[in-house]
Amino acid sequence: MKIKQETIQILNNIKSVVGGFDKNNPIYLHEPDFRNTKALDYVKNCIENGWVSSAGSWVSKFEEEICKFTGASHAVAVTNGTDGLRLALYLVGVRQGDEVIIPPLSFVGTANAVSHLNAIPHFVDIEAKSLSMCPKSLEQRLLDVGEFNDGIVINKETGRRIAAIIPVDVFGIPCDIKELNKIALRWNLPIVEDCAEALGSKLSIDRKIVHCGIDAQIGVISFNGNKLITTGGGGALITNNNDLAKLGKHISNTAKIQHDWEYDHDQVGWNDRMPNINAALGVAQLEVIKERLLKKKNLYDKYSYAFKDCQFAEIIKTQEDVFCNNWLITLRLKNRDEEVIKQLRNNLLSKALKEGLFLRPAWKLLSYLPMYKNSPSGDISVAKFENKRIINLPSSPQLDDL
Ligand SMILES: *Cc1c(COP(=O)(O)O)cnc(C)c1O
User: Which of 30, 78, 82 to mutate to test the pocket of ligand 1 (most atoms within 8 A of CB)?
Assistant: First the structure.
């Protein structure tokens, strides 16, 4: 009975923010938004001049605009975020049989990108405040199983090389890259930051405001349909490293040597380049991204206000030195008996869905998926605990218009 009332109260709080909906007019988690953009004109331009595929001026323009917006020296636009992660891992030296440290709380693409190189994900716990990789757990895990051998790190338990670390900016909340970098440096490990969800998220590092992904060797953004801006499907590598950027562009473009007519390739490459028509969509939305981020912030403030006195749930707050893009605004059920949390969560999700409101639980932990259940793993008790009590709320920028 009590859970029923709590469910209704939480749903009423959400409804006070998102306004009217019903089964025929549902509210989704995050919808693409092309209003007030020149998307149609730019796509029309591609169709009229025939440049729709993996060469064309919109791709370079998109890369330039990504650099301007994020402050990165280089951007490489690719077909999607998963491919981008795989390419980035390859660029920092991950090869078959290596282990790559990732958090168990992420979209499956993070782990799949590792597997696509025939490497093995190795799980390290998250921290409750950012929901991203916990620096202390990373350090502890490396101390427990890591061993330096000729300058490379070997996992004593498996005999495999540990080759890279992928922290994830979960729901757009920046990971603690500053602390993670210190540990990575001590262990001589590169960081590929999965900032797929974090376009527009920044944090303050040594009094400088830095976009997510920039302080890693490579950051990888996704422009999938549910992300802050979308190119239909797409992604981008961002980096300040000239050599990595150059090699990334080369390998993503079938490792083709530039020549006016010869087809000459100097290594095995991928066909990872973003098509021009997709890049045109990206340019159109980057032109309005500042307004969009403001809308998201307003929506976040409205949710925070709606839940400020709620006894059993809170909106996740970010640290003070952090600017979050609020990609998916997240509710955390306050800690109580595990069985109560479980019932409340399931009640909320099913009741909301029946009414036409799309709430979403966090991903099933990657370490529970059949293909990753035997992967090496440190203690991941924080991820297990948090995973059961976080729920993403509808976060489309359109919802701020009400
Ligand atoms: C979306 C996403 C990806 C993958 O991006 P795609 O463009 O969908 O391939 C990877 N990691 C995280 C955390 C994501 O949210």
Answer: 82
Pocket of ligand 1 (CB under 6 A): 80-82, 106-107, 109-110, 168, 194, 196-197, 222, 224, 235
In whole angstroms, give the CA distance from residue 119 to residue 111.
9
First to last CA, the chain: 33
Structure tokens of 250?
A: 């080369």
pLDDT-derived band at 1 (thresholds 50, 70, 90) equals low
Q: Which atom of ligand 1 is nearest to the CA of 197?
A: 15
Query: At residue 11, does pLDDT exceed 80?
Result: yes
Ligand 1, atom 6: nearest CA belongs to which residue? 81
- Rounded average pLDDT over 112-127: 98
Predicted TM-score (pTM) of the model is 0.96
Whether the Cβ atoms of residue 172 and residue 198 lie closer than 8 Å to each other: yes
List the residue whose alpha carbon is closest to atom 10 of ligand 1. Answer: 109
Q: Which of 197, 222, 230, 365 to mutate to test the pocket of ligand 1 (most atoms within 8 A of CB)?
A: 222
CA 44 to CA 49: how far, in whole Å?
Answer: 9
Strands 390-392 and 360-361: antiparallel
Where does residue 68 rank: exposed (0-12), middle (13-18), buried (19+ CB within 10 A)?
exposed
Residues 48-96: pLDDT tens digits? 988 877 778 999 999 999 999 999 999 999 999 999 999 999 999 999 9
Interval 354-360 mean pLDDT? 94
Instruction: Determine the atom of ligand 1 nearest the C-alpha atom of 170.
Output: 13
Ligand 1 centroid – CA 330 distance (Å): 18
Residue 368, number of CB atoms within 10 A of its CB: 12
